[in-house]
Design a protein that fits this description.
By secondary structure, the chain is α/β, with parallel strands linked by helices. It contains 20 helices and 24 strands. The protein has three domains: about 240 residues, EAL domain (TIM Barrel, Alpha-Beta Barrel); about 120 residues, Roll (CBS-domain); about 180 residues, Reverse transcriptase/Diguanylate cyclase domain (Alpha-Beta Plaits). The strands form six sheets. It has an eight-stranded mixed β-barrel with strand order 1-2-3-4-5-6-7-8, surrounded by four helices. It has a six-stranded mixed β-sheet with strand order 18-19-17-22-23-24, with helices on both faces. The longest helix has 21 residues. It is globular, with a radius of gyration of 29 Å.
Length: about 600
């Protein structure tokens, strides 16, 4: 058809032709998904992949906007949504992608008369995907008023293990209201508030406010549309947990499951744990509480509460999955009222349960868990929370144990960890050195220090200085062998790595190489061109300072050579001083016995 023709009749004919084409696309499933990673903005660990849909390559309906616009005009929005959902899940399973799948779903399709509850769940079983790996991402494109009906639909999916995300916060008609009504697990910041955020104070303040709201609501924020290192760096500093965008990775039919080591000078920290050897998760707070099934009667629950004074709550399950919680005080108070025991004693315990208990996956870190508890409100503090594994009931946890564990970690972190990097400080460094001496095993002490750091800090500000310190912490932690090596933050811009791996020397050379590749991103083009900058020194005289570099002095420790961490610290400091006498990033190794010359290795 000639697309240049105009007139009412021609417009109708064009729509008819496009509707026929759309019907064929849906019927023949001529749709293909692409996947874009969503990553932790600090560690670079992949949270999941958003599934995005594309139409036939040579069709005007190839891109999603005209595709879904045409579906709306043709009255095929629900059919297209169902088809997209199915092909996206199928391909995700075929590719065996890790982590979660963020599945775009139009709220209209959940409330459509054609929607069959349980259909998605059954289909997931057929293709071998667990519902816990699916995040239903609600895409709001039209004004929406039936909040209650949508909340009931969302609650159904939650009970079956799905997670919920709200798309495009800041755009659309009523998504702040939806956030309040649905309490999603994730909220996505619209890309409008991300792009060039470093140049727009209003956008920065908006995101800062959203971070505070998310913290109160126990929701995790995902920034969309990250396209520059400056955006990524500011979003991290503002406390945004996750992000996606072209800077990180473009949507692809077969996305890589291996994230690059660094992006725009920002080095991911990986999955390393800083202040402790292992991250504390909800599973560590597990309390075994025998559950009831929804077919059990209230009289059974009453006897359990009466016989066990320490039983604070009883989970209620259906096919092994928690659907509610019997709260001790609420239950006994209700049974104590006249005739209530006679009226409700033989009825299902589901009648008296709390239908929206706090449920958390066993692998939830306790910081996130504490946010969820606080967001749930004071009524939930006495009841505790239900723990699940892959959606099935595992046990319970108490808020008292949660608060106690958080307090212990805070005290430990304050005592032992550097507050900026989270790496172990002087006390654990000294203890680790003494343990290695006592073990009689040889090891290497690498003392790392930034060159010309103070002038950089004075010129670019303490925030940029902190980022440079974090860069060194991330690179060191990434390059060492976590199974045998130890990285500590002495303070300021000084770091120590205690290494027992056989390939310690090439690893340290990689540290210097990674730093030299990343550090240019922290300087202005003018200073990069001059390979340095001019700044007044302590005497007030203008002095030229080279670009910041990294010096590492290495001490090889043999059994019986040193008596304590004090002696080793002094010898390592001398090696570091020698390293700093050289220009640029250098590695110096003491290869002889104490007191003899130090060799240089570039």
């Amino acid at each position: 058809m000639d697309m240049s023709l105009t007139g009412e009749g021609n417009t109708t004919l064009e729509l008819s032709v496009n509707c026929d084409e759309l019907d064929g696309i849906i019927r023949e499933r001529r749709l293909f998904p692409v996947y874009q990673p969503i990553v932790d903005l600090h560690s670079g660990v992949t949270l999941g992949y958003e599934g995005l849909i594309r139409g036939p390559a040579q069709s005007p309906l190839h891109l999603p906007t005209p595709l879904f616009q045409q579906a709306a005009q043709c009255g095929r929005a629900v059919q297209l949504d169902h088809c997209c959902r199915r092909v996206t899940m199928e391909r995700f399973a075929e590719l065996a992608l890790p982590a979660r799948l963020f599945l775009n779903v139009n709220p209209e399709s959940l409330l459509s008369p054609e929607h069959r509850p349980g259909h998605t769940l059954n289909y997931l079983k057929q293709i071998g995907l667990e519902p816990e790996r699916i995040v239903i991402e609600l895409t709001e494109t039209l004004p929406f008023a039936s909040y209650r009906a949508l909340r009931e639909a969302v609650d159904y999916y939650r009970r079956n293990g799905f997670h919920i995300a709200l798309d495009d916060l800041g755009e659309g008609y009523s998504n702040l209201r939806l956030w309040s009504e649905l309490r999603p697990d994730f909220v996505k910041l619209d890309k409008h508030f991300v792009q060039n955020i470093q140049r727009d104070p209003f956008k920065e303040q908006f995101v800062r406010s959203m971070v505070d709201m998310a913290r109160q609501a126990g929701t995790l924020l995902i920034a969309e549309g990250i396209e520059s290192a400056a955006e990524l760096r500011l979003l991290r500093n503002l406390g945004v947990k996750y992000g996606q965008g072209y800077l990180i990775a473009r949507p692809a039919r077969e996305p890589s499951t291996q994230m690059q080591h660094s992006i725009g000078g920002i080095v991911w920290s990986g999955e390393r744990q800083r202040a402790s050897s292992r991250q504390i998760v909800a599973r560590d707070l597990l309390v075994e509480v025998a559950p009831l099934n929804s077919v059990d009667i209230n009289e059974t629950a009453y006897r359990i509460f009466a016989e066990d004074q320490d039983c604070f709550a009883i989970p209620v399950l259906e096919q092994g999955r928690p659907i509610g919680l019997l709260r001790r005080h609420h239950f006994l108070e209700s049974f104590a009222r006249p005739f209530n025991r006679e009226l409700y004693g033989k009825k299902s315990c589901a009648v008296m349960m709390e239908k929206h208990p706090l449920i958390a996956a066993a692998d939830t870190d306790i910081t996130t868990l504490s946010s969820l508890v606080l967001a749930a409100g004071k009524d939930y503090l006495a009841d505790g929370f239900i723990l699940t594994e892959e959606g099935s009931y595992l046990g319970m946890g108490t808020c008292y144990d949660l608060m106690r564990k958080i307090t212990e970690l805070q005290i430990s972190a304050a005592r032992y960890a550097n507050p900026l990097t989270g790496l172990p400080g002087n006390v654990p460094i000294n203890e680790a050195i003494d343990r290695l001496i006592e073990s009689g095993q040889p090891f290497v002490v690498a003392y790392a220090d930034l060159d010309y750091f103070k002038p950089f800090n004075d010129l670019y500000g303490y925030a940029a200085g902190d980022e440079l310190i974090e860069l060194v912490a991330n690179i060191l932690s990434e390059e060492v062998d976590e199974s045998v090596d130890f990285v500590g933050h002495v303070g300021g811009d000084d770091f120590v790595a205690l290494m027992q791996c056989a390939d310690w020397e090439p690893r340290l050379k990689k540290v210097l190489s990674a730093f030299d590749q990343a550090v240019p991103y922290y300087f202005s083009p003018e200073h990069l061109g001059e390979q340095g900058f001019r700044l007044a020194d302590r005497r007030g005289e203008m002095t030229f300072f080279p670009l910041t570099s990294l010096s590492v002095g290495v001490l090889k420790v043999q059994p019986g050579q040193y008596r304590s961490h004090v002696e080793i610290a002094a010898a390592a400091a001398e090696a570091k001083k020698m390293a700093k006498k050289q220009s640029g990033s250098s590695l110096f190794v003491e290869r002889r016995s104490p007191g003899m010359a130090i060799d240089r290795i570039d």
